[in-house]
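# step 3/5: fold
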Amino acid sequence: MNRQIEYQCDECKKIRMLLISDAIELKSLMLDVGTIEFVDVHRCIDDEIKASLLYIDSYNKVRSQCIIEAEENDDTKNELDNLIPTVPKTDFPKIQIVPTSDFGSFNLKGFKIKDKLRQCYYLLNENAKGEKIKVISLLKFIEFEATIAPEIDKKIAERWIKRTVKLIESVPILEDIVITFLPSYLDNFITFEPKEREINELELLFNSPISVIYTTEDKKKLFQENWKTICPDLGSTGYRMYNTILEECADEIEKSIIDVYFQIGSQYTFPYFLASINELISLGLICFEKLEFITIKRPND
């Protein structure tokens, strides 16, 4: 079963729709005024990329929306607070990130993320020492300052940060737990040129609480009986990991990626878990449904 959210953009008049699996629990994200904040980044009027802030109630109705353009300045969000039903804020709250236990801080020493869309700061080892890299997102809503080890190639690290801010800005909902897993992932990969596989894994990370995965008994059996042919380079540890994930996702019961990770006991590091999920998706052994808005009708349709 899916819940359907549908709204018409006030500016471009496109009708946009979002389907949310019943497996995704959003009550913890509800604001004091009884709405949940969603972000919909889309091509708006004159083909410009803009962000719509949507405030959606428990009946999946859009109670208000606010369109923000890339050119708007830092004060725009505060000026618009009077127009939308949010709790008044005098300053962005600071959220101190406690990373997962597998975060070694070898390459990534710390970061400061200013999220103007969701009005908060995420801080990891705020006073960390090292080389500084600052990246601002396309729509200028996300500022990410990373502190890295001096020996790290800054250009490669910057490319990773650019990918990261793009995802932060575009994901419909950003849960704090995603940011707690981010340090471990970046620490593992920030020294390597980002490739398609790792970029896909990073996207899975940001979608892990709000997207679902599932499989069938037939696909699980196919893997168990033919895994050496399907994955010739997979060792016994990899087999156990893949099989554990398939067991958890079987019977076509939708679960969020993060729920599957916690269900299997978290005995594996999250980067390794993401790599396994990504490979199972690419092999067609599990289905992945991403939470994203789509255009279902244009003004002239």
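# step 4/5: annotate
The CA atoms of residues 97 and 176 lie 9 Å apart.
# step 5/5: archive (pending)
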